[in-house]
Design brief:
This protein folds into 2 domains: 104 residues, no CATH class; 176 residues, no CATH class. Helix content is 39%, strand content 15%. The protein contains 8 helices and 9 strands. The strands form 2 sheets. Strands 3, 4, 5, 6, 7, 8 and 9 form a 7-stranded mixed beta sheet that branches. Strands 1-2 form a two-stranded antiparallel ribbon.
Length: 306
C-alpha cells in the first residue's frame, strides 16, 4: 500500500482511545460511527478531534482503492449528546467542529440507510483485508486486486455497486494467488481486524443473519448441522437468495461469508464452502472445524446441480 498504511492509522487511533473516555467520533449528519473509530471512546475533546483527523486520513487512504467510499461529516460528541440519527432527526450536539455544509453521499441525494449499511460493510471488509495483505507482505496481491477492480469497474452502471465489485475482485485474486492455507490465514486475520461477532451456538445462522442485516444476503435457510461420524466434521446446508456478489469465471465470491463465519465462532472455523445453483439463488454447504486443507473460502467453484 502506498503512503501511510491503513494499519498504521488504525493503530494510531486505537492508541488514542481510552476505556474510561466520554467523547466519541460520529457523523453529524447520519449519527453513524464509522470505521476505524467505531466503538472507541476518548478522554478529552482534543484527543477525540485528533481521532477525527486520523479517521478522515484513514478513509481518504481507503478512497484511493475505491473513490465511492462513503463520506461522513465527522464531529466530536460527549456521552449524553444527541447526534443525528438515520431517521433524519436533527443533531442537538453543540460542537465547534460541526459542518455547516454537509457533503452528500453522491449525486446530490443521500443513499437509503439500508444501502449505506451495505456500502459501509463492504468497505469495512475491504479495508481490513487490505490491512491484512499489507501486514503479510502481499503487495503483489494488492496490486492484482486493484488491476482487476479497475478493469471490472468500467462495466458497473450503478456507482453504489462498486463496493461489491471490489469484494469480487478481492475474492478472485486471493483465490488465484494464495494457497488455500494462506487464504484461510488472511481471512481469519481479516475477521480479527473487524472484531468478534456474536458467539452463537450456530455460527452459520449468526453469520448469515449479520450479512442479511447488511444487505449482502436476502432470505436464507439453514438445515440442522450434520456430523461426519468418521471425521467428526460438522456441515451445514444453507440456501441463499439475493446474494449481492456475482459469479466470476464459474466461481462464486464467498469472501464476506467466510469472514463472518470466522468472526462469529473462531474456534469452529470454516474449513470449506461448497456452492451450487438453486432455484432462487444458491445452495451453500459450510464445513466447519475439520483438520483438512481449507477449500473455497475466498471464491468457491460452482458445482453442477444435483
Amino acid at each position: 500500500m502506498i503512503g501511510t498504511t491503513l494499519t498504521d492509522i488504525r493503530e494510531r487511533i486505537e492508541a488514542l482511545a481510552s476505556e474510561d473516555g466520554t467523547y466519541y467520533v460520529v457523523c453529524g449528519r447520519t449519527g453513524e460511527r464509522p470505521v476505524p473509530a467505531a466503538g472507541l471512546w476518548f478522554d478529552t475533546r482534543t484527543v477525540a478531534r485528533a481521532a477525527v483527523h486520523a479517521t478522515e486520513q484513514y478513509r481518504s487512504a481507503l478512497r484511493r482503492y475505491d473513490p465511492r467510499t462513503p463520506r461522513y461529516d465527522l464531529i466530536v460528541c460527549e456521552a449524553g449528546d444527541s447526534p443525528a440519527r438515520p431517521d433524519g432527526s436533527r443533531v442537538l450536539a453543540t460542537d465547534a467542529d460541526a459542518p455547516t455544509t454537509p457533503e452528500p453521499f453522491g449525486d446530490g441525494e443521500e443513499r437509503k440507510p439500508a444501502r449505506r449499511r451495505r456500502i459501509e460493510f463492504c468497505h469495512r471488509v475491504a479495508a481490513a483485508t487490505f490491512e491484512t495483505l499489507s501486514d503479510g507482505a502481499c503487495e503483489g496481491v494488492e496490486t492484482a486486486i486493484m488491476d482487476t477492480y479497475f478493469e471490472r469497474a468500467e462495466t458497473v452502471e450503478d456507482p453504489d455497486d462498486l463496493c461489491l465489485c471490489l469484494l469480487e475482485s478481492m475474492a478472485t485474486e486471493i483465490d488465484d494467488r494464495l494457497s488455500p492455507v494462506r487464504q484461510a490465514e488472511v481471512l481469519s486475520a481479516t475477521a480479527a481486524q473487524l472484531g468478534p461477532g456474536d458467539r452463537a451456538d450456530e455460527p452459520v445462522t449468526a453469520a448469515l443473519r449479520a450479512l442479511h442485516r447488511r444487505g449482502l444476503v436476502g432470505e436464507f435457510t439453514c438445515a440442522p448441522a450434520g456430523i461426519d461420524r468418521a471425521t467428526g466434521a460438522r456441515s451445514v446446508r444453507t440456501t441463499l437468495s439475493e446474494y449481492a456478489l456475482s459469479p466470476q469465471d464459474d466461481r462464486l465470491p464467498v469472501l464476506p461469508v467466510a469472514v463472518e463465519l470466522y468472526r462469529h465462532r473462531p474456534a469452529m472455523a470454516p474449513a470449506a464452502l461448497r456452492v451450487a445453483a438453486a432455484d432462487e439463488g444458491w445452495r451453500v454447504t459450510v464445513e466447519l472445524g475439520t483438520d483438512g486443507e481449507p477449500d473455497g473460502l475466498a471464491s468457491a467453484p460452482i458445482q453442477p446441480r444435483a
